[in-house]
């Protein structure tokens, strides 16, 4: 039996193990991920903050088709692909949550995901007939000009672009990003590139090391505020009209939105929740709003988005509330193209690139030991190279 390396969770610890390599059945596909990133949702799963059952997490990264089952069409061995991890019409497929994820050298994708179109081609496959004499494959320009590390940003970039599109359906001139993790900083960079000086951008950080790093690394045009100073800043330094993007962990989403809405009052026009919302969590400021349902309503990122509207307590102006779980294939492709054009602007977020053995150690440091600073630098994006 063939085996491959995988980063497998065991309680609150991950380990590098050799696991059986699957053979695809009818309609199934096996892929070989190139590089895979550790995202905020993965961290929550590994810390036990979520009850997702998959022993192998990971859903962000490009891959190659390694094997196809009987009846699979339009996918060839060697073809470069990405997987849309969220299927709007199939809750049984959530890559890295209830289906084994990408932190392994081979990942089996079920026939239901293949049929639903969750596998998205991003370039022509490597044809054995085009292999050069020295054994090096000829690769199409579509494939060659996107680094695999940058490929781990495709899905979060697509999410951020959708969130900003939702928020700016309202006329706003100031964006407040709640959370200085990968999503929050990515949102700030995208907003700066998209809107320029017409949009003031404030990022509220919960970690001093990350805030200091962001001030040094991300350049001008962004206001970085420690959460201990956020009250004063939001009350006095944020212009009207403004929008809030909630980009923290699910256990802080409702609280952070409530705090911001209370401070911003009638200057607030729109809120978008990227961070998860636990079922049953209720807002004290938007008491009639089911935040989890409002976010779930945009699973797969429909356009135009489904919008909820409510006047916050103590204010007179209605706020448009949106959120989303996952994005469409077209949005993934658009994000891929954005990274091809402007990858250098986003590459600075890839702070740690390591092989699988070191990756396991860093995952345990981040998730089990809850350390954010590694080798003197805060981890903004950990990228694990599955070929090392």
Automatic annotation (TrEMBL):
Family: Belongs to the zinc-containing alcohol dehydrogenase family.
Protein name: Threonine dehydrogenase-like Zn-dependent dehydrogenase
TM annotation in the entry: 172-191
InterPro entries named in the record: ADH-like_N, FAD/NAD-bd_sf, GroES-like_sf
Keyword Transmembrane helix set for record: yes
Superkingdom of this protein's organism: Bacteria
Keywords: Membrane, Metal-binding, Oxidoreductase, Transmembrane, Transmembrane helix, Zinc
One MF annotation (Gene Ontology) recorded for this entry: metal ion binding
Cofactors (names): Zn(2+)
């Amino acid at each position: 039996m063939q085996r491959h390396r995988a980063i497998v969770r065991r309680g609150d610890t991950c380990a590098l193990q050799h696991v059986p390599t699957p053979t695809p059945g009818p309609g199934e596909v096996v892929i070989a991920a190139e590089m895979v990133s550790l995202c905020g949702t993965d961290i929550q799963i590994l810390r036990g903050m979520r009850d997702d059952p998959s022993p192998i997490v990971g859903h962000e990264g490009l891959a190659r088709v390694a094997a196809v089952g009987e009846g699979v069409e339009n996918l060839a061995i060697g073809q470069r692909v990405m997987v849309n991890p969220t299927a709007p019409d199939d809750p049984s497929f959530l890559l890295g949550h209830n289906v084994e994820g990408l932190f392994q050298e081979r990942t089996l994708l079920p026939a239901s995901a293949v049929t639903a179109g969750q596998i998205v081609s991003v370039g022509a496959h490597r044809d054995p007939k085009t292999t050069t004499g020295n054994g090096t494959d000829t690769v199409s320009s579509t494939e060659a000009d996107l680094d695999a590390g940058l490929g781990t940003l495709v899905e979060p970039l697509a999410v951020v672009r959708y969130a900003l599109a939702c928020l700016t359906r309202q006329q706003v001139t100031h964006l407040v990003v709640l959370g200085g993790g990968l999503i929050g900083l990515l949102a700030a960079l995208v907003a700066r590139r998209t809107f320029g000086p017409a949009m003031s951008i404030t990022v509220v950080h919960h970690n001093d090391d990350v805030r200091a790093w962001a001030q040094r690394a991300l350049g001008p045009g962004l206001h970085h505020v420690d959460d201990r100073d956020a009250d004063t800043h939001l009350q006095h330094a944020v212009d009207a009209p403004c929008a809030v993007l909630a980009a923290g962990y699910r256990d802080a989403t409702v609280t952070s939105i409530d705090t911001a809405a209370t401070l911003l009052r009638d200057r607030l026009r729109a809120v978008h929740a990227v961070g998860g919302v636990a079922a049953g969590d209720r807002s004290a400021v938007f008491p009639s709003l089911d935040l989890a349902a409002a976010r779930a309503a945009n699973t797969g990122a429909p356009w135009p988005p489904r919008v909820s509207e409510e006047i916050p307590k103590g204010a007179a102006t209605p706020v448009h509330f949106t959120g989303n779980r996952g994005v469409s294939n077209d949005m993934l492709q658009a994000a891929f193209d954005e990274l091809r054009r402007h990858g250098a602007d986003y590459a600075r977020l890839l702070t740690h690139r390591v092989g699988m053995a070191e990756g396991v150690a860093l995952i345990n440091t981040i998730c089990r030991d809850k350390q954010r600073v590694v080798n003197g630098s805060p981890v903004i994006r950990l990228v694990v190279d599955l070929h090392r």
